[in-house]
Specification:
By secondary structure, the protein is mainly alpha-helical. The protein has one domain. 62% of the residues lie in helices and 0% in strands. It contains two helices and no strands. α1 runs antiparallel to α2. The chain is rod-shaped. It starts with 9 loop residues before the first helix and ends in a 21-residue tail after the last helix.
Length: 124
C-alpha cells in the first residue's frame, strides 16, 4: 500500500503462523519423547520410590503438552484468518477507490456564480 497509513504484509503474517505450526510440531515431538508410563513397569521407571512420581510427572506433562500444542495451532489459525481478512479488506478498498476514481474521471464540474448573480447578501 503506497502512501501514508498502515499496511499489513500478508507474507509476514503467514510466516508467523508457520512458525507457530513448527513450534506446535516440536511440542508434539517432545511430548512423544516423554515415556508413556502405561508401557513401562515400575522397575523400568526407577522402582517403587520414583515410579509413582514419574507417573504423575508424565501424566501432567502429557496434558500440558497437548494444551500448549492446541494453543499454538489455534493461534496460528487465528493469524491466518486475520491475514485473509486484512487481504480481503484491502482488495475491497482498492476496488471501491478504483470505482470512485473512474466515476469522477475528467475535470470536475463546479457551478460558480459571480457576485453580481447571487442577489443580495445578508450583509447588505
Amino acid at each position: 500500500m503506497a502512501g501514508g497509513g498502515y499496511s499489513v504484509q500478508r507474507g509476514g503474517m503467514d510466516a508467523q503462523a508457520n512458525s507457530l505450526d513448527i513450534a506446535a510440531d516440536e511440542v508434539a515431538d517432545i511430548k512423544a519423547e516423554i515415556l508413556d508410563p502405561y508401557c513401562s513397569s515400575m522397575e523400568e521407571l526407577g522402582g517403587p520410590d520414583t515410579g509413582p512420581a514419574y507417573l504423575r510427572f508424565s501424566a501432567a506433562w502429557q496434558a500440558e503438552a497437548e494444551t500448549l500444542k492446541g494453543a499454538l495451532e489455534e493461534t496460528a489459525d487465528k493469524i491466518r484468518t486475520s491475514s485473509a481478512n486484512y487481504h480481503s479488506a484491502d482488495e475491497h478498498t482498492v476496488a471501491g477507490l478504483t470505482t470512485a476514481a473512474a466515476a469522477t474521471a475528467g475535470p470536475p464540474s463546479v457551478n460558480t456564480l459571480t457576485a453580481s448573480h447571487t442577489g443580495p447578501t445578508p450583509f447588505g
